[in-house]
Design brief:
Elements: H1 5-14, H2 24-46, H3 53-62, H4 68-78, H5 82-98, H6 102-126, H7 148-164, H8 171-194, H9 200-228
Helix pairs in contact: 2-9, 4-8, 5-6, 5-7, 6-7, 6-9, 7-8, 7-9, 8-9
Amino acid sequence: MTADPSADIAVAETAAPGVRRPPRLLWAGGVAALAVAVVLVIGWLMGDGFAFDRPLILALRERSSAGPLHNAMVDITALGGTTVLTLVTTAAILLLATRRLWLTAALVAAATASGALLVTQIKLLFARARPDIVDHLVEVSGKSFPSGHAANSAIVYLTIAALASQVVHGRWTRDAILAGAALLVLAIGFSRVYLGVHWPSDVLTGWTFGALWAGAWWLAGARIRGRAR
C-alpha cells in the first residue's frame, strides 16, 4: 500500500516535535526581552532611563565613515524595510502553503499583519522625534519610537522562525533557524543606530516588542496544535 504524503504533512502540522516546550533560544530571548522591558518601563517612569541614548549614538557616529562598513549598514538596514519584509513574509506563506502547512501559514500571516499594524499605532501614539544630534546617513520619515525596522524585522523573522520550529524536525535545525533570525534582527537594529536615524532606546523597545510578539504567537500556535491533537 502506498502511503499518502498529504497525511504525513498533516501529522507534521499537528504533532511536530518540540511543540510542548518553546525552543531554548526562544525561551532565553523571551526572558531577555522581559528584562529589557522592565528596565525601559522603570527608566521611563523615573525620567532618566534613556540617558544612554545620547552617548551611544555619538560614540557610534565617531566611528562612522564612508567605506565598506557604512555600505554594509545601508544594505543590512534595507532587510528591515517594508518592501523586503513583505517579500519575505509572502515567500514564507507561499512555501508553507505548498507544503500544505495551512495552520502555520495562517499563523504567520495573522502575526505579521497584526504586529505591523500595532507598531504603526504605537509610533503614532508616542510620536517621538528622530535623533537630531547627528546627521541621518539614510533618508527617513515618520516617528522614531519604537524603531519600525527593529520591531517589524523581529515580528517577521523571529515569528516565522518560532512558528517554523513547531513543524521542523531536529533540535539543532530549529536552533539554527532561530539563531539566524535573531542575528539578522540584531544586525538590522544596530544599523539603525549606526546610521543615526534612531535612538538606541527606540531599537531596544522594537527588539523587545518583536521578541515578545514572536513568543506569544509560538504559544498560540502550540495551544492550537495541542487542541488539534
